[in-house]
Amino acid sequence: MEVTGRKDDIMTMDKILCQPCKGDDDVVLAEGYCENCNEYFCNSCLKVHRKMTVTKNHVIKSKDDMPIVHVKADPCIQPCSKHKSEIIKYYCFQHDSVGCGDCMINDHKTCKLDLVADVSDNYADSEEFNETRTKVEDLGNKITLIKNEIQEKIKNVSDMKIKMIKEIKSYRNELNDYLDQVEATLLKEVDELNEKDVTMQTDRLHKCKALESEIHQMQQTFISQDGKVNQLFVTVKHALKHLVELNASLQQVSQEEMVDSYVFVPSKKVQDIKVSRIPLGVIHVHQEKRVVDATQTILDMKAEFVREVNIPAKDESGCLITGMAMSSSSEILLIDNMKESLTIFDIQNDRIVSKHALPSEPWDVTMIDTHTCAVTLPGAAKIIFIDTKEGLNDNKLSVKEWCRGIDYHAEKIAVSYTSHPASIEILNMNGEILNLTTFPTDDSYFPNYLTFSHDGENIYTSDYMHGSLHKCSVRSPLCKRICENLKGPRGLVITKDESFLICCQADSDQLSIIDLETQQMLPLSVTHLRSPMSILLCEKSRKMFISDETEGCSNIRLFDWKWK
């Protein structure tokens, strides 16, 4: 029998030392051993151990009978927050609380107590730990969501400042020298408004980063305590209470004051400005009346049909749009499988910006950076790269045949293959395989589209053959089916709140929403759809584009997202 990791500390020249005394830097020979606590005690410590209510019935071995080598154990080393010199060893089931011996004597005299070591066996596999870890991850995702929204607010404030300055200066140039005096007043007002908003949002951002840091530290603690179930048990108990505080802090941050928008309104009495000395203009501040709760999700929104966007010219034959990507706020990329081309389309002015011929039939597209996209060519077994300004370049990757879905995240490319056996590869930018997930060979799978999770740790793919959604890790070959009974799933997108929108080819006038947390599938009514193929969602502008195949020709349907 062994005492884990304590041999060098408690054994000196073949003599076993008292562990509690050794912890206080006192060298005292052990005279007995507690089988329940897996610890050696001197006579003084044994007397105390036998008198304490929580340990008086423990099995004590005498000096002659006690083990003389390591006792296999997983000792808890977490210091008590109230009694700094004591170690947390006990658990009160009645109050769901852990503490040291002093805590139990003071606060749990009448309670039934257990040793942490007695109740924490296999705790790393317990439902409570897994649920707690999920709660930590969910809170981290909410913090990231709110942090991103705050950063977007700060950007909008800066954009408003630039816009206001431009308008003010343009108007000022039409006036005489007198405008030099009043211009300074208006610019100062803009700066003050901007400073107020930036300061407010920066404060919120700092709060978010502080919460994010605590969540990261909590996650790192879980990792560092892998295999140390006693320590993990105590840590989770503390974490559960702390999560309540963090959730409350996050809710407070999410409900704090929003950014006001303001516009420059030119004065109607410009001609009289010298005489009247009136201001050059005023800044109208429009307060944001709607405060969106951070807990609101895509389930709280609805899609309204706006119009149909016909891509082909009138004198052209049909097209088959199998992939789409957003290249800018006003332009989208369209993959035409039938015409073997990539079209850059201006969605604001309904016009084709440019069209690029491809060497063979393409399937899907993803943006790599601002001007570069990657396209899969299933039959040619290649991934090609296209500059949206200059066209096809020489850079290409040779891959397996029937490469289909493609997505990019942080210098990694995810590709799905529908050749047997179906698979998903994670590649670096040189085409080297970083991870391979292969579907079972005893059945046919068709992972035609995929997407990265927001953190880049997982891949989600739609399986057309089995009507299901699968989750694959980017670091292991594991693949898990998380949803089924979909009717011919095709294109899919992941939203900020980690929900999925999936096009199902056999579902007309309907999309499927998958809530990852509950793995529940919900229908979303969408009009004017017959056989949807691919989907593109821009949450910032709340626009959704769906390619819909009708009689061998694809049309793009545009929808607006609105709160219910």
The number of distinct helices, counting runs of at least 4 residues, comes to 9
Question: Structural class of the helix and strand makeup?
Answer: alpha+beta
**What is the CATH class designation of the largest domain?**
Mainly Beta
Q: Radius of gyration, rounded?
A: 32 Å
Describe the structure.
By secondary structure, the protein is α+β, with helices and mostly antiparallel strands. The chain has three domains: 7-117, Double Stranded RNA Binding Domain (2-Layer Sandwich); 125-259; 298-563, Neuraminidase, CATH 2.120.10. It contains nine helices and 34 strands. The protein has a four-stranded antiparallel β-sheet, with no helix packed on it. Mean pLDDT is 84; it is low at 1-10 and 289-294.
Task: Please summarize what this structure is.
With 564 residues, the protein is an alpha+beta fold. It folds into three domains: 7-117, 2-Layer Sandwich (Double Stranded RNA Binding Domain); 125-259; 298-563, 6 Propeller (Neuraminidase).
